[in-house]
Structures are given as structure tokens and as C-alpha cells.
Amino acid sequence: MNKHHEFPYDAAAAELSNEEWLRLPPVAVNNRQWLLLDRPPETEVRGVYDEEALYVQFRVFEESPVVRHKEDGAPVYEDSCVEFFVQPIPDKDSRYFNFELNAAGTLLLEVGEPRENRQKIADAPIGIRAEVGLRDPASGRIYWKLDLRIPFAFIRRSFPDFRAVPGAAMRGNFYKCGDRTPAPHYLSWAEVQSAVPDFHRSASFGTLTLGDRHLG
Questions:
Q1: What is the 3-state secondary structure (H, E, C) of 78-100?
Q2: Where do the Carbohydrate-binding domain residues begin and end (predicted)?
Q3: Beta strands 127-135; 118-120: pairing state
Q4: Which of 64, 95, 105, 193 has a Cα-to-Cα distance from 140 of 20 to 30 A?
Q5: What is the pTM of this model?
């Protein structure tokens, strides 16, 4: 089954308050396929876009996130990690970005297709804000939060034909993992068709579209 999510448009996306973020439709990263923990970290994603960029926010209910890696380009998937894989123009180009970040905001960013033929991207103009030890006022639970700002101009460096217009259809997936945490786990939004842990399965990506420009 092909999953689908639409990113709404908001001209003030760069300035949304926490309350406004929470009013956006969430995506649950809750497919447990390979290591079936009783209580894996609850993870939700929200997204929105404006004329300049795509904004993605992860909220992870994980009280003590593991952070070992502090330098961009490091294997952050070993830590408490969230990931966003996206094909900007899947009908024309099978390559995809993988944005992988730990709870400190350390970024591993690559582009290519498939897993074995990927190019690391350093010093990308990606806005990142990470916060840990937050408390949800409704439930009292502790969570950490990661905000990403992905400029469309940056996407066009690798995908010149990409256009951020209403109805634009991308493909992608959201993940939560922690290879070297006390309770290793692998979670996804769209189910991954693989017998072993492998997030680099673009055939399993869901559809991500840009919504109409009627907000803000």
C-alpha cells in the first residue's frame, strides 16, 4: 500500500510557534519490522512549506537519547537518530537525498542511488535546530525535537528540474533508528520491503506532495 502525505503551504512557515506546529497533520513513524520492541520511541513528523523552503519537524518521545557523534558526516544512525529520505523528482530521477540526524543535530547528508553509490554533501545550507529534555504539557512525557529547513535552492543544485509548486509529487520515507543504543530499533513511516534492516529501499517510499497555497 502506497502511503501518502501532503505538506501544507504557509507563507509564515519560518515563524510558526510550537502551538501552530502541533496543529499541522502529523505522520506517525511506527512501522516496527525487524526488532520488535515492546515500547519503541514514539515518533511523529510534521511538515510545511513556503516559497523558499520545506520545513520538517520530528518529535521523539525518548527520555535519554544517545549522542556520540558530534561532527557532521559521522554515522549518526548509531545514535538516537531520525531520518528523512526524499526523491525530489521521482518520475525523472531515481536519486534521493538522505538526511540523517541525531538528537544533537549532527547531520549525515548524502545524495545518490542506490545505497552503494552515494555522495556525501558537506556544508549544506540546511537549517537545523535540536532541543532535548522537553516536556509535553498534555501528557507530561519527555521528548526531544528536531527542526529542519531545507531550501528549495539547495534541492535544485542536485535536481535542477525540481519545482516547488502546488501538486508537486515527491517520494520519500521517515525513519527513527538507533543502531548502538541500549535498545536498538528501526522504525519507518512507510513499510520497507526488506527482510533485513535497510532504509535505502526507494521502491518502498511513500508519496509526498506539496499542498495548495491557500494558508497564511
A1: HCCEEEEEEECCCCCCCCEEEEE
A2: 27-210
A3: unpaired
A4: 105
A5: 0.95
Find out whether 48 and 16 touch, Cβ atoms under 8 Å: yes
User: Any idea what DSSP says for residue 24?
Assistant: S
Cβ–Cβ under 8 Å, residues 29 and 46:
no
pLDDT tens-digit profile of 83-121?
999 999 999 999 999 999 999 999 999 999 988 889 999
- Using CB atoms within 10 A of its CB, is residue 43 exposed (0-12), middle (13-18) or buried (19+)? buried
User: Residue 1: its pLDDT value, please?
Assistant: 66
Task: For each of the domains in the chain, give its residue range(s) and CATH number, in order of start.
Answer: 4-210 (2.60.40.1190)
Give backbone dihedrals phi and psi of 192, rounded to 5 degrees, phi first: -95, 130
Q: Could you give the C-alpha distances from 66 to 50, 62, 134, 179, in angstroms and in order?
A: 33, 9, 15, 10
